[in-house]
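Posting here for the record, re: zinc ion.
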Amino acid sequence: MDILKTLDTMNAAFGPSGREEAVAAVIADMAKPYCDEISTDVMGNLICRKKGPGKKIMFAAHMDSIGFMVTHIEKEGFLRVGKIGGIPPVEVIGTPVRFENGLRGVIHCNEMEDEGKVKMEDLYVDIGARDAADAKKHVRPGDMCVYDTRSAMAANRMIIAPYTDNRSGCAVLLMAMEQLKKSVNDLYFVFTTQEEVGLRGAKTAAFGVAPDYGIAVDVTGFDDVPGSRHSCSSSTGKGAAIKVKDSSVICSPAVNKILVELAEKKKIPYQMDVLTAGGTDAGAMHLTMDGVPSSGISIPCKFCHCPQEIVSADDMEACAALCAEFAQYKFE
Ligand SMILES: [Zn+2]
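Prediction output follows.
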């Protein structure tokens, strides 16, 4: 798989939380050759099943992105926006954005004494409108826009791109699916919706699939930064990050024992992932029904939720290899 091209194809499709139809269609096309059936549920989750006789395993990677929703149109034609998911206001000043209808804009900020204190309410989107009446021809409150930044390969196979959270996780699932021939387990690769607003898609998907085991594939924090306060344990380029905890889940020791054993045995680079903040779909999966042993296989990501994030293609490949191994694991 050409990882950069795959990420670009997903990112070219629109897909903020609650508006994932376009990105789901793109992923369904990519997944089709590697699974037996594809379905969508009420929440818009894309469920790709590869049948097998063994345990039911649900791999979840959220396909939604963070974004902005128009709240108000100023008389000068500028758009005020609210955030969909966790947006760091100071990081997005000057960022180009794109609406579902193709309209382009750029985010800017009220004149401020101290730009470090920027809040969402200080931001506006300039779409080139002459005034409010002109702007209303193109957008209305409730319309969403997403980062319209570019992607590139940097040194050491590090990928700079928007929305590696979590299109890189989606690519990892596709890579894992690509590696599987016949399946010993009953596999559900679920591309979930609305993770960024509270793991909402994974909640209904996990209930619907009713898995024996759950694995969330998502990005995690990075600790390889000057002056780190060590709020997380993972580093980019050091392999698949096996989740121990985040704010949404304390992972199943039994599942992690298997993941570590598989990584050791198959010589897949790995590290243990402790995150003091943030959540993943594992948080929703492990609390479904009467509980599902769950963990996460994570891609360390720099500058998460900024208009340009950085992940390692090597880490993504390690995550895919570990997913494929777990998918083939013969449970007793
Ligand atoms: Zn994420």
